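By convention, the token line describes the chain's fold. To illustrate:
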Amino acid sequence: MRDDEPGPQGPDSGGAPRPAGPPRRQPLPDAAPEPAAEPRQETEPAPAELTGRQRLVKGLWPPRVTRAQLTVALLLFVLGLGLAIQVRSTNDTGALRGARQDDLVRILDELDDRTERLEDEKQRLEDQRTELENSSDQAEEARRQTVEKERQLGILAGNVAATGPGITVTVQDAGGTVRADMLLDAVQELRAAGAEAIQVNDVRVVAGTYLSDGSGGVNVDGNKITRPYRFKVIGNPQDLEPALNIPGGVVQTLEKEQATVVVTREEKIVVDALRPAEQPDYARSSNE
């Protein structure tokens, strides 16, 4: 019922009563037309719209490993390995911890015996090493002494060339008045003064050397040497030269025979005349 329409009049109203009719319906406002549906486009969800699993997968793959991560992984591996070894050692200790006292005493005795055997073996090997070293040193020293002795004997026997300080003696005998005994006196004086190697011209003088007169000169061990006579002597020059120049000695004796003697000190004398090594026919070493 509208507000401008008169209401039903009751018995007190002056109008005649009117029957009530059904209320009139007001028209509904027209609905707005729905917009046309646009075609859906397949787009990737925004990062904020990703689910938790997608974010986890995206963070783990592809893997991005840094140096710090590698260092941490290595430290964790070493730590785990150490824990595993410690657990294993603990298990082994736990096995011994649960053993009886008699078993522990037996294990300890076995360890002591094994340690003692190892110490004995170590001492034996050390003694053997020391013995080998001493034997090697003794053998090397014996070999060195043998070689040195052979060299010395070779020099004395005239089988080995020698070099060293000494003197040279040159005897000029223009008149041929120098005899073999005069040269032998010179050799004896030089030996007494400490001569270690002597060579006259091209002949090596040894312990068994002999001198004899010959036609036109002197023979040394059967080898003829001609004038002038040259001595090469190895020894201490300060002892050799005075031994020849003493009053009434070799130099004065030769000068009386109208010979000229020149003695010269040398820093290096080479005695290279050699005697052939002779093998004895009957004598043998007592060590054979």
Q: What stands out?
A: The two ends are 163 Å apart (CA to CA). The CA atoms of residues 214 and 224 lie 7 Å apart. Residues 101-157 form the longest helix (57 residues). The helical segments are 52-60, 67-97, 101-157, 180-192, 237-245, 250-256.
